[in-house]
Amino acid sequence: MARILLVEDERAIRNVLRNILLTEDKAHVIAEAENGQEALDALAIGTFDLVLCDIKMPLKDGIEVLDYAVAHAPETPVVMISGHGDLDTAVSCLRKGAFDYIAKPPDLNRLVQTIRQALDRGRLVAENKTLRKKITSKYQMVGDSAALGEIRQMVDKVAPTDARVLITGPNGSGKEIVAHRIHESSARARMPLVEVNCAAIPSELIESELFGHTKGAFTSAIKDRKGKFELAHEGTLFLDEIGDMSLSAQAKVLRALQENTITPVGADKSIAVNVRVLAATNKDLEKEMAEGRFREDLYHRLSVIVIKVPGLDQRKEDIPALASHFGGLLSSESGFSAKKFTPAALQALQARSWSGNIRQLRNVVERLFILCGNTIEAEDIERYA
Fold first, then answer.
1. Which of 26, 183, 184, 264 could cysteine-pair with 236, CB 3.0–4.6 Å?
2. Cβ(261)–Cβ(270) below 8 Å
3. Are residues 122 and 164 in the same domain?
4. Which helix (H) or strand (E) holds 179?
């Protein structure tokens, strides 16, 4: 089912178009406008999944309707229909943002196909917008502590550049959130952010994972496969837990950073890549270098900018905001009913030690939402946290 605005000054043509739309799907909700002004009024107060719009009409013409829709409802596809069409008009409409242009009398098959494609595009745009909102809410930097304020300032300065960033801090402190914030605030935000957990990939597979492989390069390589560097082309590659990467893999990453090229396992030719690299670790890399477990030259390549993320025990003033944030996510994503923390409960949370940092706090909030009533008391913290 879709909400469709049908804009046409001739009643007979409106009826034909309405019948075509309802034949395609009887569940469509169709609003009609006899002229451009009525269309503008409808767009001002309602939302639509598709607009079918004539061009030559009284009061306001279809071009004015198109301009308004593009400016105020950019996710809504607009299909222009006109009996006075020519190539220049069609090109002008498409340049202004129309999804398509169809001349009268319309070819039935083309009209139906265009309607389907426009509605599919509109659904995809809406789904992507919803997904981006979910991703953005998942990776918010929540809190007003001085430590977090310094990180925000650093991110705002670094994000617009292509400088490599090394993010350090204990497990669960929010290093991944900082990486996402940098990517989303950068000029590469519309391109992919590809994440690699270096600690989770066996050392014998890390080269294939990062650089890809060709068919037959090893026993299980049954087809060509792109690596993470290539998948992140024009975007950002996030190397999480870089301190756990083997020395042999470190050498190959260093070469990729130096030459901006990669060579898939089993390949003869190199591939040029344009990737911004962010890295994170919970280890003391200076100690790792001193003990021969991390390459000093790779460290200096990665640490153009270093952002240190403190543990939650170093910014306990953020705990009330974080608890509220996680509660909101649980309510919206998992269907939990809204719950309220009493001031005493928040004080009890702040009084605890958080060795697991933000990740531990999120788990505790979820446990409290499952086991407690609508109001979470200090006693609940003592019992379940």
1. 183
2. yes
3. no
4. helix 175-184
Find out whether 85 and 135 touch, Cβ atoms under 8 Å.
Answer: no
**Shared-domain flag, residues 152 and 89:** no
Q: Is 39 helix (H, G, I), strand (E, B) or coil?
A: helix
Q: Give pLDDT tens digits for 24-78.
A: 888 889 999 999 999 999 999 888 999 999 998 888 889 999 999 999 888 899 9
Please state which of the ranges 59-68, 234-243, 307-316 shows the lowest mean pLDDT: 59-68
Examine the domain organization and report whether 228 and 129 are in the same domain: no
Q: Is the pLDDT of residue 177 over 70?
A: yes
pLDDT at 304 > cutoff 90: yes
Tell which of 88, 114, 136 closes a domain. 136
CATH number for 112:
3.40.50.2300
**Residue 61 to residues 47, 51, 86, 89, 347, Cα–Cα distance (Å):** 20, 14, 16, 13, 62
- Rounded to an integer, the average pLDDT of 335-356 is 93
Q: In terms of C-beta distances under 8 Å and separation of at least 24 residues, what long-range contacts does 62-69 make, across chains too?
A: 62/7, 62/36, 63/92, 63/93, 63/96, 64/36, 64/40, 65/7, 65/36, 65/39, 65/40, 66/93, 66/96, 66/97, 66/98, 67/96, 68/40, 68/43, 69/43, 69/97
User: How far is CA 282 from its chain centroid?
Assistant: 25
